[in-house]
Amino acid sequence: MSGLQTHDLPSTLRLTKAPTDQGPTAAETKPKKKICCACPDTKKLRDECIVEHGESACSKWIEAHRLCLRSEGFNV
Q: Is Acyltransferase one of the keywords UniProt gives this record (predicted)?
């Protein structure tokens, strides 16, 4: 063990340290809910429209639900 070079340790720590000015971290942008439970109002409208009229006729409600999910932090 005498061959270990301890003087390299500080430079390793310095390389792995994250800068503090990089904006939101992963914990701050992580959604707070499961995707199935987010945006129940737009989900209901979207689902009812698709059942009654088909997916091609419901792009307005599909996009509204996507926007809501994005506002909740999901990448859809």
A: no
Residues 6+ apart with CB under 8 A from 54: none
The CATH number of 30-76 is 1.10.287.1130
Annotated ligand binding at 58? The verdict is: no
Query: pTM score, two decimals?
Result: 0.60
Q: What type of residue is 68?
A: C
Residue with tokens 């209901």: 44
The verdict on whether residue 37 carries a ligand-binding annotation is yes
Rounded Cα distance, 31 and 73, in Å: 5
What are the pLDDT digits (tens) for 39-65?
Answer: 999 999 999 999 999 999 999 999 999
User: Could you state, in order of their start, the residue ranges of all structural domains in the chain?
Assistant: 30-76
